[in-house]
Amino acid sequence: MPNDLISKLEKDGYLVLENLINEEMVSRLSSEMDVWFDKTPACQGDFYGQGTTTRFGSLLSKAPTTQDIVLHPEIMPLIDTFLGPNCDCYQLSLSQAVRIHPGAAMQPVHKDELMWPHQKDCEWMINVIWAIDDFKEENGATRLWPAHTDNGGDFEYNMGDSVVAEMPKGSALIFLGSTRHCGGANISLAGRTGIIFSYALGWLKQNENQFLAYPPEVARNFPKEIQDLIGYRIHRPNLGGYEYYCPSVLLEKEGARPEVLPAVDALQPEIQAIIDDMKREDRWAS
After folding, report:
1. In this structure, are residues 70 and 19 in contact, taking their beta carbons and an 8 Å threshold?
2. pLDDT band at 283 (very low <50, low <70, confident <90, very high)
3. Helix axes 76-83, 3-12, angle to 10 degrees
4. What residues contact 141, with CB distance under 8 A and at least 6 apart?
5. How much is the pTM?
6. Domains in the chain, please, with CATH?
7. Residue 179: which of 228, 129, 240 has the closest Cα?
8. Is the backbone peptide bond immediately before 102 cis, with ω within 30 degrees of 0?
């Protein structure tokens, strides 16, 4: 991963990688999602876009071509860099298709990390928005506030500090969970469609419950890398198990949910080393 991209994401809180996927893949993604946009009701509530925006999740099964981009090789090194050092494994927190229709107002300005109301000392989340249409200011392209404009107040900002992430379809906008942003107002005559993938530290609660979006009978048909990403693995130490066992056991054979399983330790090597030292020193009784 080029250091200049890492530096830009650190400095500005966002970056755009243009033309990562070709026209044929964009068209395929669009066709798969149109079926669901046509039957999904418009959003309710000011944040999601009352009556003027359509959103749906479970993208990895509803639009199968998304499986080809959720682990895109140009993007995952950035996720590794920012999230990898602070968890045993990171996870997919959200998959969402979004269409901002003509007449939509600007979304309330926000930071996604506010879903987890707690003090933090590292980045918790990275978002990737894939442009399925050309993103332009007039059709509601994402608006962001560069990190250097953030004075610390979660809801304090100046509109004049914002930038519009215009990009051609097939491009990706990557931004940190700490970056202030919003969907733009659509004053054009056509909808603006994008795909959002959010990646978060593996010990945080997911935005979209991946186990309901992709239950075992669905997830067992995914590649193992995606099964891992949506949470069908243990996050050491001993977090996220099924009957205190790795939840991937539920994917092994259709209809064969084990009645009983042994509880199996899932510890980081450094924790196991401490336990081993305690056993050698006979410190259990002290």
Report:
1. no
2. low
3. 60
4. 135, 164, 165, 166, 167, 184, 192
5. 0.93
6. 3-229 (2.60.120.620), 236-286 (no CATH)
7. 129
8. no
C-alpha pair distances (Å), 246 with each of 78, 229, 234: 27, 14, 5
- Amino acid identity, residue 91? Q
Whether 264 contacts 244, CB under 8 Å: yes
Nearest to 171 by CA among 142, 207, 200, 138: 142
pLDDT band at residue 284 using 50, 70 and 90 as cut-offs: low
Cα 174 to Cα 124, 128, 130, 151, 209: the distances in Å are 14, 5, 9, 21, 22
Q: Tell me which residue has tokens 């298709």.
A: 97
183 and 107 Cβ atoms separated by less than 8 Å: yes
Inform me whether the pLDDT recorded for 285 exceeds 80: no
CB atoms within 10 A of CB 159: 9
| The three-state (H, E, C) secondary structure of the chain, written as one string | CCHHHHHHHHHHCEEEECCCCCHHHHHHHHHHHHHHHHHCCCCCCCCCCCCCEEEECCHHHHCHHHHHCCCCCCCHHHHHHHHHHHCCCEEEEEEEEEEECCCCCCCCCECHHHHCCCCCCCCCEEEEEEECCCECCCECCCEEECHHHCCCCCCCCCHHHCEECCECCCCEEEEECCCEEECCCECCCCCEEEEEEEEEECCCCCCCCHHHHCCHHHHCCCCHHHHHHCCCCCECCCECCECCECHHHHHCCCCCCCCCCCCCCCCCHHHHHHHHHHHHCCCCCC
Average pLDDT value over all residues in the chain: 93
Distance CA 176, CA 214 (A): 25
> What's phi and psi for 79, nearest 5 deg?
-60, -45
Is the Cβ–Cβ distance between 101 and 186 less than 8 Å? yes
Q: How far apart are CA 166 and CA 241, in angstroms?
A: 42
